[in-house]
Amino acid sequence: MSRILVTGANGFLGSALVRALVERGHRATCLLRPGSDVSGLAGVEYTRAEGDVIHAPGLVRAVEGQEVVFHLAGVRRAATREDFLRVNAEGTRRLCEALVAAGNRPRLVLVGSLGASGPSSAGRPREEEDVPHPTDAYGESKAEAERIAFSYADRLPVTVVRPPRIVGPRDRENLLLFRLVARGLRLRLGGGERPLTLVDVEDVVDLLQVVAERDEALGQSFFVGHPHPFTLERIQDLAAEALGVRPRTVNLPPLVLSTLATAADGVARLTGRPLPLNRKFARQLLAPAWTCSSAKAERLLGFRATRDPADTIRRSALWYRQHGWL
């Protein structure tokens, strides 16, 4: 049994990770802000640590005595580049400082993002050794978080896992697509198909646990994803099949999508409520491809993502409907 801290534990991936850790008999501590929605952790036995990655005192208390720290906390939507950097990058620095101060060299597993590397070309997936080219402030902040984490590698055992687009029940990042399909609409972006690497949330959880235990993972970064790319259109087709609907295809020129996303961001700033559509999401959809190779994880760790995202998309669509999310 290990003592494990998870930051961002109440999120989609975080709650799935905590459940898996507890099922394996580990003692999980969740770093949670006051008032956090912990519905994803319902029925799970864990220790709550009040705090966040921005305020050092709460971090120092949370990391004390931990053997492994999974760092998932961060923001995916923010008003400014500085807000992304403050939480995703400087929050990682504060966590590393707290871990160093703890004195027992707990193992750090940072959950990064394919966004830190940037989009790929349609014909060649991203590899871990490629020079990062993030295309937005979120990606920049995640790339900087990686750089900061590895700068502590002489004082902490560090590993980074970079998931692409994660799918599964409870995911909100892709929920807009499912809601459109449920309402009878299917988007087709102009400019041709754009390949996407997808990964089931449970495959990410499995790899996180592997890298926390294997010395071969130290000082390394890993992509994780299903080997066969999907497309935005196929995701919608699979959702429609699961929901038993025949949506009408709406051709959406890139300029129209960008304009709508800009308007949505303006509304979000005025109301203080983030909307499902935003410029970050639009830029991701309009990139030529978001694919990555998981060959390194298989070569060094013998790990492969085995769950078919097509099945996951179908299950997710049914889960959303059963729980009133559509």
UniProtKB/TrEMBL annotation:
Pfam families cross-referenced by the UniProt entry: Epimerase (PF01370)
Residue ranges of domain NAD-dependent epimerase/dehydratase in the record: 4-219
Domain of life: Bacteria
Annotated InterPro entries: Epimerase_deHydtase, Lipid_A_modif_metabolic_enz, NAD(P)-bd_dom_sf
Region described as Disordered: spans on this chain: 116-138
Gene3D superfamilies in the cross-refs: NAD(P)-binding Rossmann-like Domain
Biased composition (Basic and acidic residues): 124-138
Xref: PANTHER family: BIFUNCTIONAL POLYMYXIN RESISTANCE PROTEIN ARNA (PTHR43245), NAD(P)-BINDING DOMAIN-CONTAINING PROTEIN (PTHR43245:SF55)
Name recorded for this polypeptide: UDP-glucose 4-epimerase
Organism: Cystobacter fuscus (strain ATCC 25194 / DSM 2262 / NBRC 100088 / M29)
